[in-house]
Amino acid sequence: MTPFAFHRPVSVASAVQLRSAQPEACYLAGGQSLLPAMKLGLAAPGDLIDLSLLPGATGIGVEAHDLRIGAMTPHAAVAASAQVRQRLPALAALAEGIGDPAVRTRGTLGGSLAQSDPAACYPAAVLGLGATVHTDRRSIAADDFFKGLYETALQPGELITALSFPIPKRAAYVKFKQPASRFALVGVFVSQGPQGTRVAVTGAGPCALRVAALEAALAKDWSAKAIEGIAVPAEGLNTDLHASAAYRAHLIGVLARRAVAAA
């Protein structure tokens, strides 16, 4: 790991100002992706901007018909929250299935979204619920946020501050785990609610994606049987040592049916 300067700002404005003054600096949320990358020499920021002291960065609250969760809220806190378990149990279950206890204690919602790992779980929930990503300068709809492999709509220095999740009528998340990492080989989040019928997938493509054919069928008939014969194209999906694109395409259908049944 190369030397770096460590900063711990106490306001969003000062954090953004530090990042603006040091264009090669990195924000540090939970550090579950950044710190291993630094140890392996894959990232070498000259400055780290720790976000742990930002006021209002953690916490879960109800606003009208949404759950609002601070970007620095750890996965474990989302999983344990009585408000999340009562109003959006699918999100609590998703958070509880991320990594192991150490990862869930340190990893954060905002850090996961900013990283946009193609196999991370949270992007499926954000896209599958039609959530809104709030930053220091704007609000971004989930459909506009994920752009590609480790690529989001965030501009240089833009900082995620909170997420708003519409509370659905029903929702569920099912994933097929990669056993060693517990990342999703494929994960599918389904919901019906204020944002309509949505089916979002993680682990299969370069970033989280929606499956329009499954959504259209479920909008007419919310049942596993309604999507039984729908084939998901393998074109554009990932192939690696764990699974081929064709296998991932097949898993999307299988997990979508299981998620609909669970919801």
Would you kindly provide a written description of the structure presented here, covering whatever features stand out?
The strands form 4 sheets. The protein has a 5-stranded antiparallel β-sheet. The chain has a 4-stranded antiparallel β-sheet with strand order 11-12-13-14, with helices on both faces. With 263 residues, the chain is an alpha+beta fold. The chain has helices at 12-21, 34-39, 75-80, 82-87, 89-96, 101-106, 109-115, 122-129, 142-145, 212-220, 245-262, and strands at 5-7, 26-28, 47-50, 60-63, 66-70, 132-135, 139-141, 146-148, 151-152, 160-166, 170-177, 184-193, 196-202, 209-210. The protein folds into 2 domains: 5-50, Uridine Diphospho-n-acetylenolpyruvylglucosamine Reductase, domain 2 (2-Layer Sandwich); 60-262, Uridine Diphospho-n-acetylenolpyruvylglucosamine Reductase, domain 3. The radius of gyration is 18 Å and the shape is globular.
Annotation keywords:
263 residues, alpha+beta, Uridine Diphospho-n-acetylenolpyruvylglucosamine Reductase, domain 2, Uridine Diphospho-n-acetylenolpyruvylglucosamine Reductase, domain 3, 2 domains, five-stranded antiparallel beta sheet, four-stranded antiparallel beta sheet, 25% strand
Set out the fold topology.
Elements: E1 5-7, H1 12-21, E2 26-28, H2 34-39, E3 47-50, E4 60-63, E5 66-70, H3 75-80, H4 82-87, H5 89-96, H6 101-106, H7 109-115, H8 122-129, E6 132-135, E7 139-141, H9 142-145, E8 146-148, E9 151-152, E10 160-166, E11 170-177, E12 184-193, E13 196-202, E14 209-210, H10 212-220, H11 245-262
Parallel strand pairs: 1-3, 2-3
Antiparallel strand pairs: 4-5, 5-10, 6-7, 6-10, 8-9, 11-12, 12-13, 13-14
